[in-house]
Fold each of these.
Amino acid sequence: MGAICSSCCGGSKGSENPESYAKFGSTNTSQTSVPPTERDLQAQQSAAQAAEQRQQKFDTSATGRAARTAVNNVKKEREAERVDRNDRAKDWLN
């Protein structure tokens, strides 16, 4: 089956060179990295601001409040470590 897959991906049937697989998708470490430009920094800053606005909008929405309540309920349940907690996986075992 491996020979079929490699033939589809440009390899020849029977060429099982492990080094060719190691080179796939790897980057050359000798490449020099380019320092970010002012435009890159501005784009990062505007993306961070947009993400913050989306998070604030989510936190104030009904969905965000429900999610926060659900997370808090799970935390309380785990802290209590009750034996009678709502554990649906155990229902399937019986």
Note: The helical segments are 2-8, 18-23, 38-60, 62-80, 88-93.
Amino acid sequence: MDPFQYVYVIRNSKQLEFHEFANKMASKTFDYPALSKGKFPELKENLHRIYQYLQGKPLDIISDHMMKNLQDIFEWKCSQATDWETEKMYKFCCSVMFEASFVTLYGRVPAADGHKVISEIRDKFIKFDASFPYLAANIPIELLGATKKVRKELIHHFLLQNMTKWLGGSKVVQARQDIFEKYELLGDYDKAAHHFAFLWASVGNTIPATFWAMYYLLRHPEALAAVRDEIDHLLQSTSQKRGPTYNIHLTREQLDNLVYLESALNESLRMCSSSMNIRISQEDFVLKLEGNQEVVLRKGDWIALYPQILHMDPEVYEDPKEYKFDRYIENGKKKTTFYKAGRKLKYFLMPFGSGISMCPGRFLAMNEMKMFLFILLSHFDVELAENKAVRLDNSRMGLGILLPDVDIAFRYKLRS
């Protein structure tokens, strides 16, 4: 519970392991065999190595593709919106982010009804995702209605004969395919299940996080105005025109310099993230903590950090239940120093986990959400169409980004 002690848990990654727990949970949830060293030597390490495609120069390439795909989808979806169009916000975020992520990672479905095919996959995904907390809690899938059937259908979309038809997939997915081919003991269905798990990891939390970022901006006009002003200023300074017919290009540096956009996004993540950081002791040992404290751990003992307690600590964040879009800005620059009891915190915002369990796709996820908001706010006038409070649905507590308890209508039209 004490954020100053987090560092002692996080740095003891040899004795306090995460991957074994994650491996067991994922193999059960997504229906592939556990990555045992005997059966699949070095598979875990090889898959981990592939995350280099989500950093540095390769991240720029995949982000560029995501930006182009987001713009194409916004244009296809919204170019008719000369007058106000009304939609449900969560459904809208889900539709746009799911398709853009799918096409960016796995490639375009070349059929004439490509959008329809992806929509069908998305609808099944939503049904499966509704059961995810139960699967994570180890409830047998046989007790969860149609979930087993839906999961099987989803996995079949990722069989090799289907994936080879998709055009322009990402290097990260191609590299995963190449690795799976080296393991004869992995059946076609098992490989497809791994691809499906990767899709869930890519969008399962990004979609609700995008919703909350958009929802809080629309609830707070001063936040919306500041972020939009920053976006317009960047377009003017780089001589880029806004509107569905113009392609906007953003470098990583330009995205990083949108301090109000990033602060607003971080603030919504602070309020809606609920990840529990779990570690399992690999041996009997004494965990030494600050101030000569120590905890005697037995092999198999669990330790859990719950950063949401930190995110809602009024000593760290004044009025923690209030959305303050500029909370992470100081003197026009990113604010990275936060204090508790007069001491500087090493960890103050942890929506993506920590240490060895930190989400490897966090940089791409942040870029995707920034780009979604950038296109939305540069192209459209947007406002809430109903005045009701949307609250956090706590059924996923401990598992990532919390979903909204209800959907809410919003309106949009092309900016003049």
Note: The first helix runs from residue 6 to 10.
